[in-house]
TrEMBL record:
InterPro entries: Aldolase_TIM, OxRdtase_FMN_N, Oye-like
Organism: Rhodovibrio sodomensis
One Pfam family per UniProt: Oxidored_FMN
Span of domain NADH:flavin oxidoreductase/NADH oxidase N-terminal: 5-338
Lineage: Bacteria, Pseudomonadati, Pseudomonadota, Alphaproteobacteria, Rhodospirillales
Top-level division of the source organism's lineage: Bacteria
Protein name, entry field: Alkene reductase
Amino acid sequence: MTTPKLFTPTEVGDIQVPNRVVMAPLTRNRARSETNEPFDLHAAYYSQRASAGLIITEATQISPEGKGYAWTPGIHAQRQIDGWRQVTDAVHTAGGRIVLQLWHVGRISHTSLQPDGAAPVGPTAVAASAYTFDGNGFVETSTPRALATDEIARVVEDYRSAARNAWDAGFDGVEVHAANGYLLDQFLRDHPNQRTDRYGGPIENRVRILREVFEAVTDVWPAGRVGVRFSPFSNFNDVADSTPMETFGTAVDVANGFGLGYLHLVEGETGGSRDLPEGASYAALRQRFDGAYMANNGYDRQMAIDAVERGAADLIAFGRPYIANPDLVERLRLNAPLNTPDRDTFYGGGAEGYTDYPFLTADQAA
Ligand code: PHB
């Protein structure tokens, strides 16, 4: 029997990977509560999953303002860098590769999560019809303040210093989170972005902040170690666009112009249906990009094998299966049964439902 291509090596930009199974970014809300630091529990969790071709960390805020949920980690303070260093060392010792996802939530936040209880920031001062988690429960997101035109350079600088911090923490690369209704996605789409300055209006303007972020991040990192994630047809967190193929076609062109290592798309509704609107095509977006294409959303073993075999994707990112199966690559390779993820322990808590999912036993693997 020939080995399916899913289990064969490839390059993700400058990163050599032994297989095409990727651990998708997964918010787990287990960082230290006051300081937003990852610690040895995170090192254990990620290193258990080191057989993935590539690990993408949970979304990690680039600045205090970029935070939108309780207990998510940051990459803007020395102790956070030190915590992430434990993670990268553990993953590398276990033979893995790991990139950090750079995150600014924009308006998907709550005043209680912001420095000095301030309003979150966004392209426009309109609240999302969305919820966040403040540590006690789900709360409606707060009405944001619109970023002033001359303030955007400061946000871009926050991306640059977070990218530098990720370098110092020993990561193999970074992924710019431009998906799921967070800050960069809020700028890209014409429903949440109602600006009339050079960051709003036509797509050439809406994509400007993304271009500036890529400029900043690729000052720090070789472009081949930078990826980007978009969710072009997802309405998660109350974002919508009147011409998504045009919007994301342009966004992909911008990413391609920088020579980024990979393009990562959420295919369909984030964590939901893979159905596409009329006229939508991932293949057409991917065609505009020269680097690796990473597909995500609801893939099972057979779909993943087929997609890579027929060249529809270079890599497949798995989310929920990676919560419950640290040895997902081995289980997929053997077509072994998967552990079922426990929703009650997705967000918050400690080791339970985090580092205690069983690996295949020697008997099962035989
Ligand atoms: C979440 O915390 O719910 C979350 C974070 C990042 C995403 C999607 C969802 O991209």
